[in-house]
């Protein structure tokens, strides 16, 4: 927004900061509990950032809707309605993510188990910080707007007064007010697109039939793809970089990859090796296996 009052730069920054706090809290707790930190865990912050920013947009959208319907001076009522609309969506998405990663801790691979523990715990912290820290930031930002304070300096600014001919000065130093009745909040272009164009388009009976057919083809292709999945994983990537198995896998691939895996046969019963016929039988068995 061009208004120096209604600019929400700090609000968006605090939403990203909330995700960062979740990552720090999760990593700190897991390291304190002695969970090994493997190289794959370094990818977790990007996942948390994506979910945290998504939750931030949901919270801000619900807050904006509450501002249109409720008394702007009643902060408790505004925040209550915001949580009533946003908390359910945020809770469901967080719950499914947390369950997915905590189920992944049942795997036999220690590195995957560590990655799922770190990431699942970070999702929990992200949820807590979104509903506590970011909710408080929403209220503080609202009070700043109600007080007609600059988004960067938090100093009071003049509202609706043309003090200079410089457009840049007017945009940075003169506010348009905190959602004044004379300037109602306009709908987002994306909302208008889905309401006026996309919604009527997909509710057409022929489009609905086409979508059902497309979904059926997608579902059939997905089922066929599941039957074609083959397990394949490079065990080298599941170990720490300083692990002793890394040189082993490198040398095994370099010198012995053309020979295939080594096959051993163990005879668990007692054998009379002094008996020539027994030795010939073992030799014949080995030749058959080869």
Automatic annotation (TrEMBL):
Signal sequence, renumbered to the chain: none
InterPro entries, alphabetized: Patched_domain-protein, PTHD_SSD, SSD
Domain of life per record: Eukaryota
Limits of the SSD domain: 1-140
Membrane-related topology note: Multi-pass membrane protein
Location of this chain's protein in the cell: Membrane
Transmembrane segments: 12-38, 44-63, 83-109, 115-140, 206-225
A cellular-component GO term for this protein: membrane
This protein's UniProt keywords: Glycoprotein, Membrane, Transmembrane, Transmembrane helix
Protein family membership: Belongs to the patched family.
Protein name listed in UniProt: PTHD3 protein
Originating species: Catharus fuscescens
């Amino acid at each position: 927004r061009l208004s120096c009052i209604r600019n929400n730069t700090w609000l968006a920054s605090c939403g990203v900061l909330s995700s960062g706090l979740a990552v720090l809290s999760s990593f700190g707790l897991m390291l304190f509990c002695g969970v090994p930190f493997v190289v794959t865990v370094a990818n977790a912050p990007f996942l948390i950032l994506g979910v945290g920013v998504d939750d931030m947009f949901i919270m801000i959208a619900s807050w904006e809707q509450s501002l249109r319907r409720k008394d702007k001076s009643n902060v408790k009522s505004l925040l209550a309605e915001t949580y009533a609309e946003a908390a359910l969506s945020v809770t469901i998405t967080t719950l499914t993510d947390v369950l997915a990663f905590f189920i992944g801790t049942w795997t036999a691979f220690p590195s995957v188990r560590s990655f799922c523990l770190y990431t699942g715990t970070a999702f929990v912290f992200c949820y807590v910080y979104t509903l506590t820290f970011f909710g408080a930031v929403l209220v503080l930002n609202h009070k700043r707007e109600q007080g007609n304070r600059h988004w960067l300096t938090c100093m009071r600014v003049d509202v609706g007064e043309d003090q200079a001919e410089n457009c840049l000065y007017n945009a940075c130093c003169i506010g348009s007010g905190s959602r004044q009745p004379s300037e109602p909040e306009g709908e987002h272009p994306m909302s208008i697109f889905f309401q006026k164009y996309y919604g009527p388009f997909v509710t057409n009976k022929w489009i609905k039939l086409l979508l059902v057919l497309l979904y059926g083809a997608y579902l059939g292709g997905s089922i066929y793809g599941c039957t074609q999945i083959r397990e394949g994983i490079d065990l080298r990537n599941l170990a720490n970089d300083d692990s002793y198995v890394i040189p082993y896998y490198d040398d095994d691939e370099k010198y012995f990859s053309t020979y295939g895996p080594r096959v051993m046969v163990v005879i668990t019963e007692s054998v009379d090796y002094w008996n020539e016929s027994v030795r010939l039988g073992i030799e014949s068995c080995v030749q058959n296996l080869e």
